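Rotation project, supervised by the postdoc (A.L.). Task for the rotation student: set up a whole-complex structure prediction and record inputs and outputs verbatim in this book. Inputs entered:
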Amino acid sequence: MIPFNKYYNQFNFLSISLVVVSLLFLIFKGFNFGIDFKGGTLIELRSSDTKINVSSLRENLNQMNLGDVSVKNFGNQKDFLIKFENSDNKNIIEEIKKSLDNSFGNNFNFRRVENVGPKVSSELLKSGIIAISVALLLMLIYIWIRFEWQFSLGAIAALFHDVTVTLGLFSLLGLEINLSIIAAVLTIVGYSMNDTVVIFDRVRENLRKYSDIKIFELTNISINETLSRTLITSVKTLLALLSIFFFGGEILKGFSLAMIFGVIFGTYSSIYIANTVLVRLNVSQKTIIKEED
Amino acid sequence: MLYFSKLRIIIVSLISLFFILFASSNFFKTSNELLNKKINLGLDLQGGSYLLLEIDNTPVIDQKIQNLTIVIKNYFKEKNIRINNIKLINQKISFSVDEKFKQSVLDEFTDEESNINPYYPRFKSHQLDILEKNNSFIVNYSKQGIIELKTSSQDQALEIVRRRIDEIGTNEPNILKRGNDRILVELPGLDDPMRIKSLLGKTANLTFRFVTNNTEDSFGAEKLKYEDSTDEAVVSKRIILSGENLLDAQPRMNNETNETVVSFTLDRVGAKRFGKATSTGIGKQLAIVLDGKIISAPVIRDTIASGSGQISGGFTFQSATDLALLLRSGALPAPLNIIEERTVGPDLGQDSINSGIIALVIGFILVILFILVKYKIFGLITNVTLIINLFLLVGILTMFEATLTLPGIAGIILTVGMAVDANVLIFERIKEELKNEKNNLIAFDGGYTKSRTAILDANITTLLAAIILFFMGSGPIKGFSLTLGVGIFTTLFSVYFIARLLTVLYVLKNKEKKDLI
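Outputs recorded:
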């Protein structure tokens, strides 16, 4: 049996530090919002001329008064991602097409054009935040119905940790937050919950079985009993996610990366956060027997 | 948990076969109507344009309220009530009347049968609010009145948008209302929405022109078809009135002829021209032409100088409503703004399909190998189940002709990854049971029973997340939550019916074998 409970304090300290640091990043550095949430225009270009590079493209676009233009390679040397803030000019795409054709010849294929107005982007952001909040609330209620409030608190602490740290990592690395990241965060919420519930289910079963074992020991037994399942499920979910990350194309990269972080944090938090909350709240056989009477 | 009746085996097999058949209909052409269904590819996979249009209602409301001042004036004039000092202040109409008329004016506005102020019984509200202040009346649109205005302008705009898009001839466009002032347009296969975008900003072309038998009309003439038949008429090119001269149009019941008509109101320029044309053209046919087709060509019976008139011509109430709607939209071109646009070229769509499928296949193989190494014969059972699960998922998506997006493919891969979880929970539990229990059958039974709550809880939590995503997410995200959500049901079905059946069959044959799992 692995003595997970030996390190409860150390890992609690680590988790709290991680959450605090993440929150600081979220507050002071903020997010690199994509056009979904910031508004603006995104163009994905493919050039058939290998001589065209990021700097020559940028130079050309800078002459067009687009404001803050970002030009990057996207996946490979011939694909480019251009982003700029909203322009009042309704024909801007057409003008960019003309300007690029004039400067570089007819070498571009406009593979993707996205334009999100300021009103829509703020609505998307709002509904994203609402979606995550509603998800957390529903999970809380579900666990409350299925278990006791101490468990509910443990699960929510774990969820909060996973969401905060994943978003903190995105902030730290300056990765783009867009609609698919919201989907990833919600899936992480589901996954982390899933993982926590399986261990909690075992904790509850063991609480009924052994009246003389303290919760400190009991959580450790439960974690160990479910450990092989936890690891197998994490590994194969990660296998599926890594496959999306490496082979699923540029568009799904952010989503699968967020999910990969989320699965790792979710597995960790089920062990070291959800359970330690039970320990600190001194859950005992009485906690569940009382409720069942 | 280990008992399976024959009937159950048959039902499970039939259900599985049914969905496998559906799933395979994506790859084969059949003449069978029921099976001739396919998963729709989202715009991100087949390429196409997604446009969200917002109707700018401010000019509509401005125009309506301005028009209303004239309507009010004329309405009370007919009732011999003089309206004084009528003017517009901040989108509100203010006017005063002699003391003795005050009550009757108020009554006109608050009567539920009111002609000037329609009452919406469903919302218990009039179109207009009226209040008395400093000896004068202030009239403006009620909350419900504004909503009615917005909904009606959305209906018109949607109709116009649909007609315009149909004219361009893109295949299977999807045009939907969003809220009460937005229109969503999805145009599959269109990689350059420039033309549609510029068309959507223009007004419908409505003209009033004389029908002429004289082909040597000094302005020239053209042969035009009727909207609802193959009949043709020669119509002068001289435009008496155009859509821009219309202020309003409404379906009405003509009390004298008991016929449904469309009544319209013209602006001052239009009224003058209309009056002149109708006085010189009595007995002639005036064609009402919309987008190059004649809606009707009534014979002018009288001079119409009031600036309003009626179009009759065998309308049903529905067709009159439709025509009025079209005429109104000509008169009130509510500007459409494109507030969101997402266009994916067909080659990027194809790339996404390819990479999505590659990721799916590789992810699938990795998971299958991992499970096979880990659980041997039971891994094989799990993998067979997993493949059936995939067919079930695709089959259900096909049956409902759901839309598959790139995030939707990610959802399928994730389902593959997570689907095995239930089996892992069961097998790990059985392993634990076998530590204390020699009898294989009892251990397997215990494993299934004791792992059930954990499996249900785990799947319900994921389902909750998927449901929230489905209802709050937009576009591609919906596709992800759909496959994730449907995947949970197919997973539970395949784990508890198919995998369990196979497991039971194997265990029954190997009752005595040690270290079975």
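Student's summary: Chain A touches chain B through 69 residues (CB under 8 Å).
Supervisor addendum: Chain A is about 70% helix and 10% strand.
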